[in-house]
Amino acid sequence: MANEKRRNKKKKTHRQFTMWLLIDALISCSFLCFWSFSLMPTVSALASSSSSSFLAPSEVNTCDISEFRCPSKDGQGTLCLPMDRWCNGKDECDNRVDEPRSCTICNRTYYARLGSTYRLSLVRPRMSGTTQILPWNCWFNFTALGGHHGDRVLVGMEAFSVGQLHRSENGSLCLGGQVVQRDASSTPADTDVVHGGDQIITGAWCGEGWGQPITTSAGKWLQLMLTISDVVDLSRFRFDLTYRVVRADTGNLSPSTSAVISTTSAAGNNGSGSSSAILWYGDPVPGTLCSRNLHSCDQRTCILQSPNFPGLYPRNVTCYYYIRQAWSPKNQTILLTLVQSEPGQSFSVRTSDAGEKERKMMSGRECRTRVDDTVSIYNGATIESPLLARLCGTGNMPHITGAGGELLVVFRSQPHDAPFNPAPLGASPGFRLTTRVRFVAANQVRQYHPECRISITSSGSNSRRSQRQGIIRSPEATMAPNTSCLYEFTGREDQRVWMTFLSYRLDGGEDGDCLTMTDGQELVSRQCGAAVQPRICPHALVHANSSTAYKPCRWQDGESYLSRSPRFTIRQELATGTAIRPWSFVIRFEFITVDRFSPKEQLIAGQVKETLVHGGGGGTMTGVTESPEASAGDDDDQQLTSQMMTPDCFQLLESSKGNGSVSSPRNPLLYGRGGSRHLRCLYRFQAGKGEHTHLTINPFHSTGCARFNQSGCQACLSVDEVFWGGRVRRRSYHTCRSLSGNNPVVLQSAASSLELIFEVRDMNWAQDDDHFYFVAEYSFSRGIDPLCWDSHQQTGKRGNLRIDPRDRCVRHSIPWHIQAPRGGYIILVFPAGQASITKTIEGCPTNNRLFVYSITDGKTQLYREVCLMAGSLQLAQGGDKTSSQQPLNLYSAGWSERNWMADGLLVVASLQGVPIPDETPLIVTWLSVFKDVTSKSLSFAARQSVHGANASQMVCRTGCPALGACLSSDLWCDDREDCPDGSDEKQCIRLVFWPLYVGLVVILLSLTAGLVAVYLVHRYYQARRYTANGRTYKPRPKEKKAKFSSVTVSLTRHYEKGGPGS
């Protein structure tokens, strides 16, 4: 019974619903017929009619197609009402013609005129008792007829509340009602629906809209289909619309053609403005709603924009924008960059939580593909290509750059969502992007490879600085999420990597964004997330592109990195990519050469330690002309030596290891650019026994001081000879001027050790091995008699220097070392007419020289330069015969000074000119002399004027007035005239028969010794005898003594007084 009542009630409800549908259909048909007949004259006269004012009587009884004809009360004319006045609940015609019973604004086609805005307000669906009429459909057709009726339709949603929008992790769904948009671009073949189970779900809007969103038509018409399908709360139902028409070239509307000419100024691909530009939207892909192909964007402005831009883009659409640039200059690669067309225009792609959280740009995992609308950019032609960025949200879109000439942009919208207008107000939903084309060097494409791996190898240890260093900047292309960029710096075995971060930036780093640096196999540092902050040298970035000197980025101060091995790697892991979180850096790198110097411990051991204590003096080596700056720089050299006792680099080169070449340090850390102000390097050439050392310097470059002479910069090169185990050293060569390749310096030394000293002081921050450098070749050869060193080291009171061209020791330039006595001096006596003191080259007719050096504390200094020549040659020069026959006396240093003396002399012979006549050896005599006690504080001239030629005025008994000195007592009366006037041999007692005297002394001494011996023997035997009763007895033999008695008693003889035993 109950079931039957239920069936009867259901049938009754069905009959009522059917009756209402029939009534509604009859009313609609009658209204449409009446409206069609009333508008027929209007349509026929549309071409010739002009726009008339609304609510004004029409003179020809016709109205525009966008108007409703309202007859006047007197029947004299008609009123033309806008289409939105029909069925608006107000009696506009005074006879309620515009408000018939059961009228509705649904299921109608609306037209509009340019410059007018129309409003429609739909009331909630009718109710029949407490039962809703379901399903309930309502459609609106908005058409632009062209001309003054416009080309495109814009529909705004002032109030929207239809159905309910349900969101979940699996997507969104409209419950109870929805609104579907279709326009001229929609065809049955379009892929604007998705399949869910057995039903077809069409993309739609539902829920509550906000921000007065606007949707536009892709062509000349647009349709909105409203459907209420289920019992929902209709108390909040609102559907208020505005619509208007515009011309096709208005604003940034999506064009109906592929290309349009913009008359406004637009920035081309090269960044320059122009009064007109070709805006190309690409070729539509047949059978799709919004997919387009774009190419040759270097010749025109390629635009990518969402469907129906700047209006609401349709729901449940997938658009593919394929960009291809085929042409590029030779040896260059292509970079395609997507940027916002206008700076004030925002990128707005709907997200599921846009209304709940603060709107912002999001990328990567923040954009959920199942619930958010997304824009995916691939660096290639397919979705299998590397994903550069997946964007969603609202904000300013960053520049997205891809390399290789192909980009694929995929735009996907979810099936259901609420209509919205993004903040700030006035911004448009969707996107409008411009494609820019740039060409870069082809070798930079490795930075944009998906693996992002760059290998930098040194061009060589002997290359110039410009080839050993460089600057690396962060890739201009966008890095895809989960990208790992690897930078490998590989040098030669003798090189190290000096690397400086001039800048580094990684916005909003996450835990997966890590910076790792390794030195060979050793981990230097690893930083992740927001804590990534490598060593930065910011002051170097300011001068990175300028020629001004700047403070060096010292690794000791934590401003740079210096590797210990030839390989240094930097790995940057980017978990979220660089689309939203920019990553930028500037790195300056340099491959520095670590010279293979000898350990400095060798300077402490043995004789090498002496080379640091003695700085050397000025001088000239055999066969080399004295440099003009040698003597002038002695004071500076001594000061420099005192400041820098320990060299910064030391190299020991032994003859046992063969010949070779040396050069200045190539490590910039030792120079001003590495933070060092002074540099001193010592190269020691150790010759074997009986070997020569040959040294050729070519070139020597020190022009850096001329360019940067603000701080007194000076670079010098010196060569020292070390004799007799470091006890004596001589500076053989010294220069502070550059040497070109055409004028090499050739040096030859017989010293056991030869030291090359490279010194630079007061460098500034811009100077390095490119400003100061030298190259020298060395070799060793045999041919020196080892006995020469013993014969040329002379001590005592007197000696001779035999200068013989045939002597191998002289030919090999073995110097003579004459050691002065304690508290004394040395005087060299040259034969008359064979030598003269010269100060200029023109003063000596030959190239035969005798260089005399004074020795003080082991250091030598050029004292005199003696010209060796024959007497005839001197007379030929017009000299005085009397003076030429006088011997030349040369006193050691300090003789003419007060209270100062030298340790000795070092004499070096150089025979390169006219030979001595008949090859006769030149004998130079030297004597040990002392100053007179009364004239030690007097100068040489004063001493000569006091004593003159009178020896009686001198205090010392061995005085030589001709020399003004006191001779050693060993030189007095030795049958050799050491004093020029012979006074040392005139007052001597001569012993002619001295052998006889010696023989007599020997005989007397022998006789005396014999007598003494006889006497001693006699005394010995006399002490052994004794006398008794006038008789002499010899000592008795020992007899047996009684035990236990202290007295010896004879048992065989009677005791006699005075006899033996008494």
From TrEMBL:
**What is the top-level taxon of the source organism?**
Eukaryota
The protein in question is named CUB domain-containing protein
| Keyword Zinc assigned | no
Q: Which SUPFAM superfamilies match?
A: LDL receptor-like module, Spermadhesin, CUB domain
PANTHER family assigned to the protein according to its UniProt record, in alphabetical order: CUB DOMAIN-CONTAINING PROTEIN, CUBILIN
Q: List the disulfide bonds.
A: C973-C988
Q: Which UniProt keywords apply?
A: Disulfide bond, Membrane, Transmembrane, Transmembrane helix
Where does the signal peptide begin and end? none
Q: Which GO terms describe its cellular component?
A: plasma membrane
- Ranges for domain CUB come to 290-438
Sorted alphabetically, which InterPro entries does this protein's record hold? CUB_dom, DUF7805, LDL_receptor-like_sf, LDLR_class-A_CS, LDrepeatLR_classA_rpt, Non-NMDA_GluR_Accessory, Sperma_CUB_dom_sf
Bilayer-crossing residues are 994-1017
Keyword check for Ribonucleoprotein? no
